[in-house]
Design goal:
2 copies of one chain form a homodimer.
Chain A (H helix, E strand, L loop, with lengths): L12 H25 L4 E7 L5 H11 L5 E5 L5 H4 L5 H4 L8 E5 L4 H8 L5 H20 L3 E8 L2 H13 L9 H8 L1 H14 L7 E5 L3 H21 L12 H7 L24 H20 L7 E8 L5 H9 L7 E5 L5 H4 L5 H4 L8 E5 L8 H4 L5 H21 L1 E9 L2 H13 L9 H8 L1 H15 L6 E5 L3 H19 L1
Parallel strand pairs in A: 1-3, 1-4, 2-3, 4-5, 6-8, 6-9, 7-8, 9-10
Chain lengths: 501, 501
């Protein structure tokens, strides 16, 4: 879930200076309209790791906007008054009324995450708290609150560097406490627990927006622009009809949040080095070696109690079929089944979306290989508008749950995204058109999809951000060189199965 | 949650014979339209206690409707095939496609409930399973499935009688197994676990419909009429616009399910014997005694770590104020706070619905007494249309969660509904108008509410059915005789606090 926030996002200070005044003015304007309309409150929740700029951002928002209409709250140890009431009372007390903005520096998630990271609560108890959080946020959203949750992220390395640099400066030294370093030591645990929080409480109405905290200009602009876009979307939407507040289709659409804007045009895919070297001399023996290992794993007695689901997604002509053939060549035909996934047929359209994938789940000791998959909903269906926004927004959660159920059952879930460059795709399309026996592989659909290249890339980045989880991470495969791609796929698969057994 | 299903509901066999043919014809007709429209599937889930007529009802539905378009499934121990896939796979396999009807005799809830009742799973694990169930049903509902869940209920006494009568008849003896009697012994545990299931998985889109199983004619008509009403509502609703299936306001309203129809005009309130004897000679010493006990309890050191929330709801002029005064007379004024709840003011309207009640939660060792309460949403706001159907439908779950949070914190929640007859209300209204100093107590609103008497009574029955829980049960108070009502209120309160300490 944190992949996109470890790309080294940054914005020049100059660009920042150029963009800040307009953003600031627009935020002030939105705040004024919010106060006049008094139709909904804005609630900004700030969470994330230490040293990622949470405090600075809170101060900045207060500086940018009119602080008379903002209520900022931080939550330390509960007061006597608070201890005497149920846990959520302290948060209910500070909810902003319609027309105002509340900023919560830490919120209902903070203690559950820390207590779980320090192993003071059980996994089951934490699950229950996540559920409480989900319900509470659902209630806020049903009641019309515009809820924006920002998660400030730093990699372990960046956190260390940040704490050190704060310590070096006499002006900021006081901000680094022993506690901060102790928490840094527990970084991996904290990250794992946080990932579960972010996955389970990222609903369609209130997803966590994960912001890379390293570069101040980047994170400030990102938060500001996101807040502005969300406020404008709600302010400009027509009011919901009748008292069934927030239930109309228009209101629903207005409620769904924009994903993070691409402030610095740096995203997961654009950061990939698509041309990777791999000569045939290296490829042939490596392939043989990996296929041998995969074959042995497939016959391992331990695998008889497990199963594997392998998902291939990727740009058109990225080489999914070729990679799959190198994989199946290592397996006994009785032990795997391949499922090419196209548009749903009539029987499939008559069922809930995931039905056709549930049908194809493998038995113990078997592989199911999906050439395209359940991710169609958040890729082609989203981009082409085959389903409504509410449907693909809720899909992220459903897909994560689906894979978590597979994992809980002992199924190993391995997911590949094969990425080629736009030029490489053109080259392959042309080549396919010219070779008679490959002609069937290129259709008008392919050319049409190509026109929406950017929209697809955005959908892929969002998909990886929202569905790359500890139990079922995405592997991005640089695929301009087919040989390299096939080796990376096989090596990853072998490694994942070895780890699991 | 099961109160309404222990009233001895029944329908004459004659009346049944009179009504059955039309119901049957209408169900067949609905089934034909369902098959032609192919817009959604119908999924009927049958759960509940042994001996309550589950099997008979499943057979009857197959007899009434065209069995060629119904798929009925029962679930025993999982097959080999099923064991090799995740837990939910067996249910995905049998989902009916759009246009068809599926009947599940036992479903995803069955094993979790039994395992919990037999203490084979922990409370935390059961909570997690409830959550999985909730999410799965939410997905079905989001995907457009018309999901109807019937819970067949018998009291412990009725279950025993039923098992015995089956055993007596040589034709049905085979149906009673040793297992049935073993389960009967665990009735109380099973009931407690079932209540939690029904409470936690009764969402606005898919509430459990609790049907009393004693009388065959009653339960058959109830299930048939409910199924028919739900199907007609969806069949007659215009199709949702655009691909955002099931997300429009109209679709939302069509999705919300009707409550159980009042087949035999027997409901919780109509079964109350409102005129209860209580002379002043009995009343005076009883009052003094109870007030003394309440006072001692309020000063009990154990109460210093607890708190109490007392809710008074009731018909207009039912004597809430008088009952509250007899209660507060027993308490130190520093120890309690009374909150008369009227229509929300501007500040309250600017916040989520429950905000104004959270504000008033008592500190440890204190009482908060609410003269009307959070139940306004499912009473006056529902009946007068001050909020949309989706809002009051989701409120049941929110109110239950709210009270569960209070309970978890150690707050004792006691809820009273004071009921008077329509004639008694008229008498009191007239008396108020004639006595100058009581004149302020009668307003045009009161007369207007009175015109909606039946709608209010229905709302009250639904409220009790959906929000009377183990942690916060409703106490219905027969209040035609004020003296009796006050004593019942005080006695119940004293008893609940004594139990809790």
């Amino acid at each position: 879930m944190f992949e996109s926030a470890e790309l080294g996002h940054r914005i020049d200070r100059e660009e920042y200076r150029r963009r800040e005044p307009a953003l600031r003015a627009a935020l002030l304007q939105a705040q004024v309209e919010l106060g006049v309309q008094k139709r909904f409150p804005v609630l900004v929740v700030i969470g994330g790791v230490d040293g990622a700029g949470k405090g600075e951002t809170v101060n900045l928002l207060n500086e940018w906007m009119d602080p008379r209409h903002i209520d900022t709250h931080a939550f330390g140890a509960p007061t006597d008054e608070e201890l005497e009431r149920p846990r959520m009372w302290r948060f209910w007390r500070v909810l902003p009324p319609k027309g105002r903005t509340g900023i919560l520096f830490g919120a209902w998630h903070t203690r559950p995450v820390l207590e779980r990271a320090y192993r003071r609560t059980s996994a089951d108890r934490f699950e229950q708290q996540l559920q409480e959080i989900e319900r509470f946020e659902q209630m806020l959203s049903d009641e019309g609150v515009l809820l924006l949750k920002f998660w400030f992220h730093l990699s372990k390395k960046d956190q260390k560097a940040r704490l050190k640099s704060l310590e070096k400066d006499p002006l900021t030294r006081w901000r680094v406490t022993r506690e901060d370093w102790l928490r840094h030591e527990k970084y991996d645990r904290f990250r794992k627990v946080s990932e579960l929080l972010v996955r389970r409480t990222s609903t369609a109405d209130a997803p966590w927006l994960v912001v890379e905290g390293v570069d101040e200009c980047y994170r400030s602009l990102t938060v500001g622009e996101t807040l502005l876009a969300a406020m404008r979307r709600r302010l400009d939407a027509p009011d919901a009809p009748v008292p069934a507040s927030g239930k109309g289709a228009a209101a629903k659409a207005a409620k769904a949040l924009p994903m993070l804007p691409a402030i610095d045009r740096r995203d997961l895919l654009s950061m990939l080095q698509l041309d990777q070297p791999m000569s045939r001399e290296v490829y042939e023996p490596a392939l043989e070696l990996l296929q041998g290992r995969l074959n042995r794993l497939s016959r391992d007695p331990k695998f008889r109690r497990r199963s594997a689901v392998v998902v291939f997604e990727g740009s058109d002509a990225a080489g999914k079929g070729g990679a799959i053939r190198r994989l199946t060549a290592a397996l006994d035909a009785r032990q795997y089944h391949g499922f090419p996934i196209a548009a749903p047929d009539e029987a499939e359209r008559a069922q809930p979306y995931l039905w056709r994938f549930w049908r194809h789940l493998p038995r113990r000791g078997h592989f199911a290989i999906f050439d395209r998959s359940w991710y169609g909903r958040v890729l082609v269906e989203r981009v082409e508008g085959y389903c409504g926004e509410a449907d693909w927004q809720r899909a992220y959660g459903e897909l994560n749950e689906f894979e978590a159920e597979l994992d809980a059952h002992g199924t190993i879930v391995v997911k590949f995204w094969l990425q080629i460059s736009k030029q490489e795709q053109l080259r392959r399309f042309r080549a396919r058109e010219q070779v008679a026996f490959k002609n069937f592989k290129i259709t008008p659909d392919d050319w049409r999809n190509r026109k929406r290249w950017d929209a697809y890339q955005q959908a892929v980045c969002d998909m990886v951000d929202r569905t790359s989880t500890a139990v079922a991470p995405w592997t991005l495969v640089e695929a301009n060189n087919k040989l390299y791609a096939r080796i990376k796929v096989l090596a990853t698969l072998v490694e994942r199965i070895e780890q699991a057994l």
